[in-house]
Amino acid sequence: EEYLKQRANEGSTAAVAADPAPAPAPAAAAAAADPAPSTAATAGGDMDAASAIIAMETSQSKTVSEIAAAIPDLASKPDQSYEKSDGFTIMGNAVTLQASDAPGPANVAWVSDLIVENALSSLTIFNGPLSDVPHLISRCFINEGKISFFLDVRPRAYGAYDLRDADGNYPGPDTLGRKAFEYSGARKDYDSKFGTEELISLLDESVAKLEGVTTNPGLGDEGLGELEKITRGPLAVDISMPLTSGNVDTIIDLREKVAAMWLGWATDDSHTHKPGAPVNSQYVYDTKYKQNCYGALLDTYVDFFGQADGE
């Protein structure tokens, strides 16, 4: 968010996601002259991009309002937000960004409610070190009649997910030594608290309703970038599909339900760390993790919007 403000003040039309951490690594090379996202429906789709983003924006605003109502200390950050009247654009599309955080008992590091007209709907929620509640990444990009949908409920402890192979297996003690048990414990903790059958069933059933789905590279696949590997959760949904009203409705429903699950966790005191070492360890892990998330997201935005605007 801070970076967005800086670029805007410099007169740039570039954009980055709502992660204020400094970038540790350069973005992958991409063509600067990528075509602007199309607002028209193409063959096989029955919805245009503008209408789809409006529907997603309405839903996303509702979700953020529900979060604010349930977390009283969630406060807006006007100096890191954008209104349409501010005139900030990405490839000619107006940008709105509502940023907020709750540094008090709720310990929400930030909430980013980001909309790029005709192109992007993104809700990012990162938590502070006082709890082990997962981060939430919920993003839809639309271009040339296609939806790129990404949803991730991200663990707060390292579970060696980046080392998982294509069959879902993890290296054991023969490869990692005692660390294998530490990482296995982190995975079991996440699975028992958050990555439950309820969440897995919701994700599976929702994806099954979508039409024309193509699965993008995931954990264990060679096509996944290094920063994505070390930041992505085990249940991440990363898929593409035609822009249809049915697909949009299913995605909106899934995003709302997962956000509601996150809110339930965030307001449950049982997920709060005990004072002392657990909080300190969480802080140390989160600091590096957020930097890696920034780098991964920067690569994604360059892919979406081209080098100049993506950065």
Q: How would you describe the overall organization of this protein?
A:
This protein is an alpha+beta fold. Helix content is 40%, strand content 18%. The protein has eight helices and nine strands. It has helices at residues 2-9, 49-70, 173-176, 179-193, 197-209, 226-231, 245-266, 277-310, and strands at residues 75-76, 89-90, 93-102, 108-116, 120-127, 135-143, 146-154, 214-215, 237-242. Strands 1, 2, 3, 4, 5, 6, 7, 8 and 9 form a nine-stranded antiparallel beta sheet that branches. Strand 5 (120-127) and strand 6 (135-143) form a beta hairpin. Helix 2 (49-70) runs parallel beside helix 7 (245-266) and helix 5 runs antiparallel to helix 7 (245-266). The model is unreliable at 1-35 and 38-44 (pLDDT under 50).
Task: Write the H/E string, N to C.
Answer: HHEEEEEEEHHHEHEHH
Radius of gyration: 19 Å
End-to-end separation = 13 Å
Q: What is the total tally of β strands?
A: 9
Using the alpha-carbon principal axes, give the shape. Answer: globular
Helix and strand content put the structural class at: alpha+beta
Largest beta sheet, briefly? Answer: 9 strands, antiparallel
Could you tell me the mean pLDDT? 88
Number of helices: 8
Helix coverage percent: 25-40%
Strand content: 15-25%
Low-confidence parts, pLDDT < 50 over ≥5 residues?
A: 1-35, 38-44
